[in-house]
């Protein structure tokens, strides 16, 4: 069993994506033996109104809710986000959300972001935060969105101990409180592996040693990224089968199972 916590459907404004429909992504998942995936709308990253992307996503995954688990993209800087969150959770059955502060013109420290986290936490929803969407070397000349600072993420997870965060598309955690035993942070976040090295610096092994195998989850970044590197990390990881199972699916399944929703995924 493998659950991918970091996948996407839809179009991206600055780049053609392959395998970005439900049928195409499921075909790729079958080829790579990935059983389920948490997906959000790639279109919503650059839509002025992200809710349109959430609506497209819900329609796309509806026939495949046994395998594709939709997460909302909510912009707390956009008028009416409270209604969008309610609709995504109660009507569309989304168990979590993804935040894009750099793309949506706010900061993690802003009160509007904190209000959204409070509202999502009250609903029992998971809050996933991509550290980046694309490598800076591949970005369009029309945008300049820097990676999120891990220091800002540390401050956020510490300020909201009752929230549950999943950190996507990041690396370098072991040099920050997020990846250290003595970091002084609550155990309210999981770290996804798509950009984390498992051989040379072996940050993945260090994270497991520092935080425990129950704090790391599998993810690929499909279809922005090929899934093979993340799958290879599972194969070469020098760890017990139980630890690999936690990383591959058990941790994700536990968090998703304990998330409130008014509609089955």
From TrEMBL:
Q: Which domain of life is it from?
A: Bacteria
What InterPro entries is this protein classified in? ACMSD (IPR032465), Amidohydro-rel (IPR006680), Metal_Hydrolase (IPR032466)
What does the record list as GO biological process? Answer: secondary metabolic process
Could you tell me which Pfam families the record lists for this protein? Amidohydro_2 (PF04909)
Q: GO molecular-function annotation terms? A: carboxy-lyase activity; hydrolase activity
The answer to whether the entry has keyword Signal is: no
Q: Where is the Amidohydrolase-related domain?
A: 39-255
Q: Which UniProt keywords apply?
A: Hydrolase, Lyase
Gene3D superfamilies in UniProt:
Metal-dependent hydrolases (3.20.20.140)
Q: Which GO terms describe its cellular component?
A: cytoplasm
Protein name, entry field? Putative TIM-barrel fold metal-dependent hydrolase
Q: What is the species of this protein?
A: Singulisphaera acidiphila (strain ATCC BAA-1392 / DSM 18658 / VKM B-2454 / MOB10)
